[in-house]
């Protein structure tokens, strides 16, 4: 019996040792790392948090370029899946931890982190002046404090399948009416005109961002809204919602059940002729079907104005609780250099936020040109991610309700207006 | 009765056969699709692969440190389950066999954990793990698996201890055995079935957990299979062949383990997890 | 029930009497540290206001008032609550009902029962992420097995966008969950059937009971303990339903909140929606979790109390 009790205590002892041992072992690791850093400030390591899991290999090249000039700073790119990024980042930040460099969501979503005091101001960062005001705006708060270095612009527009257009004798539309005729022709031939689905609501605000300017003539409506002269009860806005509804007949069969992956597949496998989505889809579609020959066209309006909808999609910012702020600053400054901009355009197949960087990718360089001349801001992202739930969310879910037949066109506009009124200053 | 049996038996077979087909079909689809190329999946989503190609697996294994993920998952799951069994059998024995005024209260407290989403406490947990120096340590996952596995394990084990005949124990006590010896040499051996149940249930949830590794692990070298595979979803969202190969790789270890251990486990549940 | 303390009182030396109190300590420490403490800490958030992600002042019950009175939270809450209720009812009827029947069939000793038990249980070993992904594919409106099968059977009129149609999305998700969990129910019920003493059955048979009457009059009452256990577990699981919905329909409970549940709503409040532009309301999220916790706690306590009474009677 004594033997047994000894076993018991041995067990408890063992458990305690194991538990304590593991804890302290890791801790000692931490402190030894810390000591090393303070002893010789030469070896510094930075981590980058991001939602771009698909870009791991590309960021390794960025880091390699960075290390040519700064071999003493070790950088690790450690992304989290898009849909879980906010959760992971918010948790770490609330605990005073998190990556040194943070991939910041654009506009209000990212600025919320800054409001909570998690992001370091970088007003005096060298090199910020290469960017345009609009690009910097994406990570600047109302007081004019800058929080992020803008990286890439995203644009949304219609992509189209060149082969199908050629076979059907179709041209890129120059006016809204031509656009509709084009759709009707395709439909009559039994080809799905537009690859779009309504299962994931974020696709709907995105589609509205593309189609809307076709109704309300480029920036006019946007500017009046910002000035508080017009709001979402305006007839033009209602018309843009009605137009969205009318487009449904050009969507694939069972569009209410299709999500992002499904519509990309429809377009990439040439089952649909057009694909209204963002510039970031170019490499993905090409990977899925390398033989696909596709181009883009800007949204034409009734008066024949053409628009590409753009915004800054992400900036890099510095964690206010970072232990290596100096090194982080060096890295952020690197992101403003031309070398980085060129590498970025080449490797990422995206539009750089830095002006004047050209690309070898034909589609992309055309798109960059269109962005420079025909852009309108994607206002749902740039101006209407405030409110709780956000105005953008309200628009998305109400549009989804409309496509499902549960919500009337006027009620979509009404709900959006009601929400915007609760927080959007020009409406108050 | 006799007329009845002619019709009821075939009917029974039809029912179990249909349900079994529905149960197995998606798993079969996953495994079959993993041998196809992306193009084949879209052209012929439901048919058999035209040829068995292991290419997707090869490219996948060259891109993802699967063995690291696998080893981490094994360590986390095995240590978690072992710890759960040890701490819960001790506690359940105490609660089921000793009637102090507080034993029911302790039991109740243990059950509370089933009734609330633990995600709620993620920020305090993160701070706790950091203070313990367990961020990026497999121990953070092990402790979470043990802690979240305790409620259901306690429910099953306590229920089981209560059904054990007291006579066995009393006979052992007469022989002068202590509590540990009674637990270890008398009760646990006859509880093998219940332990089998508890082991499999906890193993499944430890193996498949992705929320805690998502939050606590950022180093690639410490990631477990579900989290490693989740990043695959982002990296290869357009390459469906790889995606299915990844899903199959992530699920196969559990499926195999289940087939090896299923007999023991089934007996475990059927032998009286309930009463 | 038992009184095992009596013999130990007589025989043990005093020091080994207290060692027994060490038995629950390891479990209590781990559970207390990693479950109780964080939950209690987080529940207390429901009484504070939050500015962004920073905790502000103590505001008493303000968050609860907001949750129930301010739109759209109020209607979202009841909408989600209703879906949890539907979740519970369908799971009870379809999953547990079918599981009961399947267990009965296996209990009647059919051939290959080992295989069938394993087959029913196999889905349970998969990760929910895998389950969600697979079923999204099977239910795909244009390529998925379900619609293709309907077409081959000449039932095109029944084809639907199963997960995109608010009339079917919730029910389909619940059925997938039934697919996932049915094996566990079968095993629990089978254990119950096998625990019924054969004398009782023999006696009933001699009384002339058979077929359906046998099942409803004899088996059903005797199975009440296992039905209750499955009932409680299904109840808890239904009201915490989250992972499958999140994997298949995202954190918005799409389409148009038709698959929203309390736990999904909570996740959206506490962590923001999974798309880029979510806003967080940690205080409201904690208030919601507190309500959910209290509701489950009260209902299960009542349930368990009923069960204990039954135990005593039997």
Salient structural properties:
heterotrimer; A: about 425 residues; alpha/beta; D-Maltodextrin-Binding Protein, domain 2; 2 domains; five-stranded mixed sheet; C: about 325 residues; mainly alpha; MetI-like fold; two-stranded antiparallel sheet; disordered N terminus; transmembrane helix (chain B); MetI-like_sf (chain B); MetI-like (chain B); transmembrane (chain B)
Percent helix of chain A: 40-55%
| CA-based gyration radius of chain B | 23 Å
Largest sheet of chain B: none
Relevant CATH superfamily of the largest domain in chain A: Periplasmic binding protein-like II
CATH class of the largest domain in chain A: Alpha Beta
Shape of chain A: globular
**The CATH superfamily title of chain B:** MetI-like
Count, helices of chain A? 18
What are the low-pLDDT stretches of chain B, counting only 5+ consecutive residues below 50? Answer: none
- What is the first-to-last residue Cα distance of chain A? 81 Å
The oligomeric state of the chains shown is heterotrimer
Strand content of chain B: under 5%
**Biggest interface and which pair forms it?**
B-C, 95 and 94 residues
CATH-derived topology of chain B: MetI-like fold
The beta-strand count of chain B equals 0
Task: Assess the beta-strand content of chain A as a share of residues.
Answer: 5-15%
What does this structure look like?
- The complex is a heterotrimer of chains A (428), B (275) and C (314).
- With 428 residues, chain A is an alpha/beta fold.
- Chain A folds into two domains: 42-151 and 314-336, D-Maltodextrin-Binding Protein, domain 2, CATH 3.40.190; 155-312 and 378-427, Periplasmic binding protein-like II (D-Maltodextrin-Binding Protein, domain 2, 3-Layer(aba) Sandwich).
- Chain A is built from 18 helices and 13 strands.
- Chain A has helices at 2-39, 56-69, 82-94, 108-115, 133-137, 162-167, 176-188, 202-215, 220-227, 235-247, 260-268, 281-288, 325-334, 338-348, 362-374, 379-382, 391-403, 409-421; strands spanning 44-50, 73-79, 101-104, 148-150, 152-161, 192-194, 272-278, 294-297, 299-300, 306-312, 315-318, 351-352, 375-377.
- In chain A, the strands form two sheets. In chain A, strands 5, 6, 7, 8, 9, 10, 12 and 13 form an eight-stranded mixed sheet that branches.
- Chain A is globular.
- The termini of chain A are far apart.
- The model of chain A is unreliable at 1-14 and 16-40 (pLDDT under 50).
- In chain B, 77% of the residues lie in helices and 0% in strands.
- Chain B is globular, with a radius of gyration of 23 Å.
- The model of chain B has no long low-confidence stretch (mean pLDDT 83).
- Chain C is mostly helical and 314 residues long.
- Chain C folds into two domains: 5-60, no CATH class; 72-313, MetI-like (MetI-like fold), CATH 1.10.3720.
- Chain C is 69% helix and 3% strand.
- Chain C has a two-stranded antiparallel ribbon.
- Chain C starts with a helix and ends with a helix.
- Classes of the chains: A alpha/beta (428), B mainly alpha (275), C mainly alpha (314).
- Chains in contact: A-B, A-C, B-C.
- Chain A: InterPro entries: Bact_solute-bd_prot1, SBP.
- Chain A: Pfam families: SBP_bac_1.
- Chain A: This is Sugar ABC transporter substrate-binding protein.
- Chain C: It is a multi-pass membrane protein.
């Amino acid at each position: 019996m004594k033997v047994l009790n000894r076993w018991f205590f041995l067990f408890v002892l063992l458990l305690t040792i194991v538990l304590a041992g593991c804890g302290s072992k890791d801790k000692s690791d931490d402190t030894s790392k810390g000591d090393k850093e303070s002893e010789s400030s030469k070896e510094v390591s930075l981590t980058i948090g991001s939602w771009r899991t698909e870009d791991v290999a590309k960021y390794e090249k960025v880091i390699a370029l960075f290390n040519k000039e700064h071999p003493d700073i070790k950088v690790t790119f450690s992304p989290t899946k898009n849909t879980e990024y906010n959760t992971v980042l918010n948790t770490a930040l609330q605990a005073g931890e998190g990556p040194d460099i943070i991939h910041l969501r654009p506009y209000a979503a990212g600025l919320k982190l800054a409001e909570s005091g998690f992001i370091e101001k970088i007003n005096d960062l060298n090199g910020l002046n290469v960017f345009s005001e609009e690009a910097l705006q994406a990570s600047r708060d109302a007081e004019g404090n800058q929080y992020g270095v803008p990286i890439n612009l995203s644009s949304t527009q219609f992509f189209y399948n060149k082969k199908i257009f050629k076979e059907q004798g179709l041209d890129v539309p120059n006016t809204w009416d031509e656009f509709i005729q084009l759709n009707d022709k395709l439909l009559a031939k039994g080809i799905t005109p537009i690859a779009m689905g309504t299962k994931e609501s974020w696709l709907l605000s995105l589609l509205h961002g593309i189609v809307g300017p076709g109704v309300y003539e480029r920036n006019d409506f946007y500017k009046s809204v910002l000035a508080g002269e017009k709001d979402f009860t305006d007839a033009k806005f209602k018309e843009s919602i009605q137009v969205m509804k009318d487009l449904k007949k050009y969507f694939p069969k069972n569009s209410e059940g299709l999500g992002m992956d499904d519509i990309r597949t429809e377009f990439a496998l040439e089952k649909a002729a057009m694909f209204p989505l963002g510039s970031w889809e170019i490499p993905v579609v090409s990977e899925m079907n390398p033989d696909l020959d596709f181009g883009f066209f800007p949204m034409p309006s009734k008066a024949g104005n053409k628009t590409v909808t753009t915004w800054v999609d992400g900036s890099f910012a510095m964690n206010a609780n970072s232990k290596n702020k100096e090194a982080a600053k060096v890295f952020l400054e690197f992101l403003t250099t031309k070398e980085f901009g060129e590498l970025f355009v080449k490797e990422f197949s995206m539009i750089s936020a830095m002006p004047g960087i050209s690309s070898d990718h034909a589609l992309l360089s055309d798109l960059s040109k269109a962005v420079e001349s025909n852009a309108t801001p994607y206002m749902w992202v740039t101006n209407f991610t405030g409110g709780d739930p956000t105005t953008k969310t309200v628009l998305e879910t109400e549009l989804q309700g409309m496509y499902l037949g549960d919500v009337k066109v006027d009620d979509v506009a009404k709900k959006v207006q009601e929400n915007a009124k609760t927080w959007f200053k020009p409406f108050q | 009765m006799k007329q009845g049996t002619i019709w009821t038996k075939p009917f029974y077979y039809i029912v179990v056969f249909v349900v079994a087909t529905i149960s197995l079909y998606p798993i079969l689809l996953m495994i079959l699709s993993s041998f196809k190329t992306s193009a084949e999946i879209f052209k012929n989503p439901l048919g058999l692969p035209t040829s068995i190609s292991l290419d997707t697996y090869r490219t996948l294994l060259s891109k993802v440190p699967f063995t690291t993920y696998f080893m981490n998952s094994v360590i986390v799951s095995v240590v978690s389950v072992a710890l759960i069994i040890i701490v819960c059998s001790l506690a359940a024995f105490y609660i089921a066999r000793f009637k102090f005024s507080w034993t029911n209260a302790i039991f109740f407290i243990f059950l509370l954990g089933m009734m609330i989403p633990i995600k709620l406490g993620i920020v305090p947990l993160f701070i706790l793990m950091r203070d313990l120096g367990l961020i990026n340590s497999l121990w953070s996952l092990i402790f979470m698996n043990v802690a979240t596995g305790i409620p259901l394990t306690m429910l099953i084990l306590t229920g089981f201890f209560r059904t054990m005949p007291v006579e066995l124990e009393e006979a052992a006590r007469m022989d002068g055995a202590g509590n540990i010896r009674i637990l270890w040499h008398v009760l646990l051996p006859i509880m093998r079935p219940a332990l089998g149940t508890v082991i499999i249930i906890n193993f499944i949830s430890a193996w498949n957990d992705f929320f805690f590794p998502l939050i606590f692990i950022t180093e690639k070298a410490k990631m477990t299979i579900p989290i490693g595979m989740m990043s695959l979803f982002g990296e290869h969202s357009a390459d469906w062949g790889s995606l299915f190969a990844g899903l199959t790789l992530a699920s196969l270890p559990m499926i195999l383990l289940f087939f090896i251990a299923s007999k023991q486990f089934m007996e475990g549940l059927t032998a009286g997890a309930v009463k | 029930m038992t009184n095992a303390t009596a013999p130990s009182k007589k025989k043990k030396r005093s020091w080994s009497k207290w060692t027994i109190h060490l038995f629950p300590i390891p479990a209590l420490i781990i559970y207390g540290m990693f479950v109780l403490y964080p939950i209690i800490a987080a529940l207390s958030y429901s009484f504070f206001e939050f500015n962004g992600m920073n905790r502000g002042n103590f505001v008493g019950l303000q968050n609860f008032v907001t949750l129930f009175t301010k739109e759209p939270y109020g209607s979202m809450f009841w909408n989600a609550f209703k879906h949890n209720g539907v979740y519970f009812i369908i799971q009870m009827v379809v999953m547990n009902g079918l599981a009961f029947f399947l267990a009965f069939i296996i209990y009647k000793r059919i051939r290959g029962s080992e295989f069938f038990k394993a087959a029913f249980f196999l889905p349970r070993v998969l990760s929910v992420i895998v389950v969600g992904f697979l079923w999204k594919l099977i239910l795909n409106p244009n390529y998925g097995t379900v619609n293709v099968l309907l077409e081959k059977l000449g039932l095109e009129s029944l084809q639907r966008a199963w997960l995109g149609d608010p009339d079917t999305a919730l029910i389909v998700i619940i059925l997938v969950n039934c697919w996932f969990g049915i094996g566990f129910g079968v095993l629990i019920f089978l254990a119950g059937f096998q625990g019924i003493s054969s004398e009782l059955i023999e006696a009933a048979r001699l009384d002339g009971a058979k077929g359906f009457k046998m099942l409803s009059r004899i088996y059903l009452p005797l199975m009440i303990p296992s039905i209750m256990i499955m009932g409680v577990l299904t109840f808890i699981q239904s009201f915490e339903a989250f992972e499958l919905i999140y994997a298949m329909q995202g954190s918005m409970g799409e389409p148009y909140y038709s698959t929203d549940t309390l736990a999904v709503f909570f996740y959206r409040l506490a962590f923001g929606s999974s798309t880029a532009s979510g806003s967080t309301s940690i205080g409201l999220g904690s208030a919601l979790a507190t309500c959910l916790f209290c509701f489950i706690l009260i209902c299960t306590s009542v349930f368990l109390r009923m069960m204990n009474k039954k135990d005593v009677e039997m």
